[in-house]
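Cont'd.
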Amino acid sequence: MFSKKVVIILLTTALIGAGAIFVGCSSPAPTPTPAAASAPLTGTLSVIGSTSVGPYAEELAAAFDAKNDDKTSVGVSQVGSGPGIKAVIDGTADIGMSSRELTDEEKAKGLVTYKICYDGIAVIVNKANPVNSLTMDQIRDIFAGNVTSWKQFGGDDAGIIVVTREAGSGTRSAFDELVMKKANITAKAIQQSSTGAVTAYVAGNKNAIGYISYGSLDVSQVRPVAVNGVEPSVATIKDGSYIIQRPFLLVTRGEATGLSKAFIEFVLSPEGQAMLAKHNLVTV
Amino acid sequence: MHVKEKIVQSSLFICALSSIAIILLIIFFIINEGLPAISRRGILDFILGGEWNATYSVYGILPMIVGTLAVTLLSLLISVPLGVGCAILLAEIAPPWARDIIKPAIGTLAGIPSVIYGFFGLVVIVPWIVAQFGGTGVSVLACGIVLAIMVLPTIISVSEDALRSVPREYREGAIAIGATPWQTVTGIVVPAASSGIVASIILAMGRAIGETMAVLMVGGSVVAIPDSIFSPVAPMTAVIALEFSYASGEHLSALYAIGIVLLLIIMLLNSVIHVMNSRRGMERA
């Protein structure tokens, strides 16, 4: 016969399972109500996508909610640019976050993009690494696995450990497009699935080289290399002399309306842009 | 009263049925999604293929199977002696006050989210491995150490229950014929609890095989058969987690197919537990 324990376990499992199904079925598609400028904003908004844009969107969302006396609730979930854009196409999210331009395939789905700022991609090395400047071609050679020792660049006689983001990441696709061009990142590269993990790994390994969003760069942990002799900074990204850079986009299906529109307008307002600038992002 | 009884009984029955139905649905869904990738190449090619490259539609998962088995085995080599030792200490030797401190501590260890273990591994264990042995740091060894810490609570608590459920008469009998406490533990109590201890190890193995986030962070996710414990490794779960967000078409199907293989491995383990537990029941009777 069933022991008490088994019954309890079965019961809780079933309840959780039933609960999950119930929740899964009972979240209706959000219908944004066009709010007049004077009327107080209410409602919920789901913002899904890039892990590069995510942290800033979280902060913007919190400020936006606070501004509306918490009558609005903007939920941000970070799943990567591709899945975020897909969610907007499928209608499961109101706004997508992308850290790359849309592909032609995505553009054909009737999406509208809003550029909110620019972000550079910093190529980072360990602070103990003497190499502090590389050309674009050298970076490409390193990541393609053609050059495998730091000695070639005046560093130690040690193997270069290449760290890359996973193929679905917005930072990765931006890096592929901006730096690698047609070359492939070596199959021997260590893969890490978040900006934090890349930083932590490079900080802990003297011979590692990786790349992260400039806005997330923590110079107390790792050091960015100068690219073609130009150090990444807000000024060099703004004037275009630091060449590894990309746009941050918010994406909606069709023109943004109602609460989505209000949120995007807030992001593009001086207040929102100032919040982005605080994080070394380059405002539009 | 009788009616109440009936209502409780049937509602419990419905609960049990619905959870079984949910599990069957999940299994059916995964198999349904994964079969196209397997049937295109044949199961043998899929399982024994050494190359995984979504760009060229080459899907062989041998490196991941080897990776999963390697990190699991290593984690058990580290955690089983530690865990069983700790369980013996708790069940047989430690005074009650010490148990009251150690047990909740172990419970806490079980409640820590795996992403925390992963970060701990990345900022503490991986640099330590680099400092000691050089190389990449992210490796089979790093995964083995992190997983060992993660499965310790499982081994300790289940083994301890098994040791405690050994009848007192066994211990009294052993001491009566002149065995020392240590002989009693190693010669009588542990063998009597052995099926429970083995079950704890198999549970731990299941947890290690299924762990995703931590191995994603400290393994390095390089899909190649690791040639030493210092090589980077991509366990099956890590590859699924890493590529699932952007995979489509056959690539997605291949990821589901990895899920099928994982499911088979876990089912095999569960049936082993089941057989062991029923054997245990017969010993009791």
